[in-house]
Amino acid sequence: MNKVIIIILLLLSTLLAAEEFDIEKFSNPSKYEWHNMKDRCEAREYLNSKQKILQIYELNKQQVIGNMIKSAFAPGWGHYSSHDYTKGHTFIASEIVLFGTSYYFYNRAMDDYHNYEDSHYIGDIKQLYLDANSNYKYSQLFFSLGAIVWIYTIYDSISATQEYNQNLWNDLTKELNSKKVLITPTGFTVRF
Amino acid sequence: MKNLILFLMILLIMSCSLDRTNPLDPLVSNKEAPGRVTGIQVMTTENNTIFITWNSMQAATGYYIYRSQSYDGFYALIIDIEKGLNDIHEYEDLDVDIPGNFYWYKMSAYIIIDEEQLEGYRSEPITWH
């Protein structure tokens, strides 16, 4: 019995604490500075235009993850997708130069190393091993630099994509604001 | 932080070396290559041949003799002389055309490691006076 009384009291207390929903206050148009029908229509147009921009933006924006994967697959590809051609050219050229140089030194190192393995003359054994090792280290150095640039390219594709998306949004809003005539389902607006 | 990454990168690169796999490499076999052949003398004979002598080397198993017609030209191996029990340390080059031609010689000693010949440093070019 006591339990039932406690539950009833609790229910009554929640009813007392609840504020009455004020429909007048909620639907008061002056709250949004809509003083007349024209203001309402303008606000609706504004919202529609924003929605349209958002739709175009969603269709055209670049995915950060997607561009990171592109850059991981081929350095600079993510930047090309973000229309950052200067960085794209720079990164792909750097990678070609660094990995190409690394491959060149690796080939030289292996040539010297195979000659070292086949050599019987002490002068060649000592010199060829030194040459092979030195070329191998150059190869490692350029490969490491290439790997660092590659990682940086992936990292930089994030900011490039974000910048692209920001510019896209700015362009779309600027384009919309610069339009003198706007045709919407509710009517049209002419700016002078 | 950048300096640390740079230092680690250099350390990593410097620590990466190719393995020494040539069994004749003194650092693999722990056997020193023979030194340079000393006391080389080149002379012509009355039979228009060239006679070469040198100091015998205790550690060597044999000797190589190279010949060229110019001081800094290509030296071709003309003979591999095994020292043998008789301790040979002379050679007569019959395949020459003198007078009229000039010949330069280089020599080296070798030892055998695992049935392979390890050749020591070659001597400076030498000819007859």
What does the model show?
The complex is a heterodimer of chains A (192) and B (129). With 192 residues, chain A is mostly helical. Chain A has a domain at 74-192. Chain A contains seven helices and two strands; from the N terminus they run H-H-H-H-H-H-H-E-E. Chain A has helices spanning 2-17, 23-26, 37-60, 64-73, 77-81, 85-118, 122-178; strands spanning 181-184, 187-190. In chain A, strands 1-2 form a two-stranded antiparallel ribbon. In chain A, 21% of the residues are buried. The mean pLDDT of chain A is 86. Chain B has 129 residues and is of the alpha+beta class. Chain B has one domain (37-129): Immunoglobulins (Immunoglobulin-like), CATH 2.60.40. Chain B has two helices and seven strands; from the N terminus they run H-H-E-E-E-E-E-E-E. Chain B has helices spanning 2-15, 26-29, and strands at residues 41-44, 50-53, 62-68, 76-82, 90-93, 104-113, 116-119. In chain B, the strands form two sheets. A four-stranded antiparallel sheet of chain B has the order 4-3-6-7, with no helix packed on it. In chain B, strands 1-2-5 form a three-stranded antiparallel sheet, with no helix packed on it. In chain B, a hairpin with a 2-residue loop joins strand 6 (104-113) and strand 7. Chain B is elongated and about 80 Å long.
Shape of chain A: elongated
Structural class of chain A: mainly alpha
CATH homologous superfamily grouping of chain B: Immunoglobulins
Strand content of chain B: 25-35%
